[in-house]
Design a protein that fits this description.
This protein is α/β, with parallel strands linked by helices. It folds into 2 domains: about 5-70 and about 320-425, Aspartate Aminotransferase, domain 1 (Alpha-Beta Complex); about 70-315, Type I PLP-dependent aspartate aminotransferase-like (Major domain) (Aspartate Aminotransferase, domain 2), CATH 3.40.640. The chain has helices at about 5-15, 70-80, 90-105, 115-130, 160, 170-175, 185-195, 220-230, 250-255, 280-285, 305-345, 370-375, 380-390, 410-425; strands at about 40, 45-50, 55, 110-115, 135-140, 180, 200-205, 235-240, 260-265, 275-280, 350-355, 360, 395, 405. The strands form 3 sheets. The protein has a 7-stranded mixed beta sheet with strand order 4-10-9-8-7-5-6, sandwiched between helices. It is globular, with a radius of gyration of 21 Å. The two termini are about 15 Å apart. The model has no long low-confidence stretch (mean pLDDT about 95). Bound molecules: pyridoxal-5'-phosphate. Pyridoxal-5'-phosphate binds next to helix 4.
């Protein structure tokens, strides 16, 4: 596969952006390759600057559940743009999307739109601290909740990929207010509360971890978090930026019958435009200005183009949920199990973790139930696999510690082509 133009574009970008990228996970450092530069995308396919075509299995890191350039989404954005791209004043489209969100997530009685998942979790934590008058936040190793200071302690995603679990530049005084515990371990949570019973403001969790690769909650784990937080007067924040609208229309809250105090959303809720959201029980949300003392704001929050894309995407999912989610489940199951079978046939140790259309193939005999397990994966073997797959036109997230996704535009043809590519990659030892 020729990458001449992408390589030239990378050289140019490296003069302008650290590492040539505007988000570190886009660099291919971890898989030892240069990233293709994307020119356009349609349905399940990405097209790069050299005219190569790839089956897309990262979906802009989650948002593109309906595939690229989905006609209803494109039309909604174009229609909104004709009426101006921003007002800085309230619109009906914000309430329309908020009513859709509340219908899917009944626990969200009130909410605020922001422009990213990072802003959503950062604001939810400020709110939790204000509501409880406490300072400590409990998070879990390998979970990523955006790049706010207090959440970059033992974080997943790019922080895990590049081996920077605690970022430079985060003052020790702030990092000390975050307790990072192993995921899927309720005893660790009980012990933390025993040691800091009146100091923990909130527990924040990725209900299904996506940012150490895909890791499922053990039966009873999430319900256990709910019970413990309730007992100790701490808030439970479920970070559904990745899982919301992805693993079910109502996300993990629906799938695992969870009733957290606050929920954060992003990615799919913006239909590919920059949107985040935090919301939950009215008593907490009404602490925000102008009603209450917790400050939070955003010049482009509830942006009309973003609301249009969100309404088109979430509206489609609501209307077609009965077909969309079973279809995503069936396609992802065929793909994930098909590739795992090829690995087994070639004698390669592979652990496939999946919930609906979100999954990871860990290059490890497994099981993978927390970050420490994920970290045992053979990242060199993953890198070799990734390079062969990319060369055969299959674009997976370029790190072992990221979840892959597919969309409603992916079908039998893409699944068959991907399994064939994987079979070759395993047979060649991924070389
Ligand atoms: C992507 C992600 C975030 C951060 O969202 P951004 O829009 O990238 O700031 C937060 N939490 C989770 C679970 C995510 O997957």
């Amino acid at each position: 596969m020729n990458h001449t133009r992408s390589q030239a574009l990378q050289t140019r970008a490296e003069r302008l952006f650290p590492g040539g990228v505007n988000s570190p996970v886009r660099a291919f450092t971890a898989v030892g390759a240069a990233p293709p530069f994307v020119e356009r995308a349609s349905g399940a396919y990405l097209y790069d600057a050299d005219g190569n075509r790839y089956i897309d299995y990262f979906g802009s890191w989650g948002p593109m559940i309906l595939g690229h350039a989905f006609p209803a989404v494109v039309e909604a954005i174009v229609r909104a743009a004709r009426d101006s791209s921003s007002f800085g004043a309230s619109t009906a489209a914000e309430s329309e999307l908020a009513e859709r969100v509340a219908a899917c997530f009944p626990v969200i009685e009130k909410m605020r739109f922001v422009s990213s998942g990072t802003e959503a979790t950062m604001s939810a934590i400020r709110l939790a601290r204000a509501a409880t008058g406490r300072k400590i936040i409990v998070k879990f190793e390998g979970c990523y909740h955006g790049h706010a200071d207090g959440l970059l302690v033992k974080a997943g995603s790019g922080a895990a990929t590049f081996g920077i679990p605690g970022s430079a530049g985060v003052p020790e005084e702030i990092a000390r207010l975050t307790l990072a515990l192993p995921y899927n371990d309720l005893v660790a949570v009980e012990s933390a509360f025993a040691a800091h019973s009146h100091a923990i403001a909130a527990v924040i969790v990725e209900p299904v971890v996506g940012n150490s690769g895909c890791i499922l909650p053990a039966p009873g784990y999430l319900a256990g978090l709910r019970k413990i937080t309730e007992r100790h007067g701490a808030l439970l924040i479920v970070d559904e930026v990745m899982t919301g609208f992805r693993i079910a229309l109502g996300g993990a809250c629906q799938l695992y019958s969870l009733e957290p105090d606050l929920v954060t959303l992003g990615k799919i809720v913006g239909g590919g435009l920059p949107v985040g959201l935090f919301g939950g029980k009215r008593c907490f949300m009404d602490l925000l200005t102008p009603l209450g003392p917790v400050y939070q704001a955003g010049t482009l929050s509830g942006n009309p183009l973003a609301m249009a894309a969100g309404n088109a995407t979430v509206g489609y999912l609501q209307q077609h949920a009965a077909e969309v989610y079973p279809q995503l489940e069936a396609t992802a199951k065929a793909l994930v199990e098909g590739v795992a079978r090829e690995a087994a046939r070639a004698g390669k140790p592979l652990t496939a973790n999946r919930v609906g259309s979100m999954w990871t193939w860990f290059f490890s005999p497994g099981p993978v139930t927390n970050y420490a397990d994920a970290a045992k994966s053979d990242t060199a073997a993953f890198g070799r696999f990734h390079r062969v797959m990319l060369d055969r036109g299959v674009w997976l997230p370029p790190s072992q510690f990221e979840a892959a996704f597919l969309s409603t535009a992916h079908g039998e043809a893409e699944v068959a082509e991907t399994i064939a590519a994987a079979s070759q990659a395993f047979e060649r030892g991924g070389e």
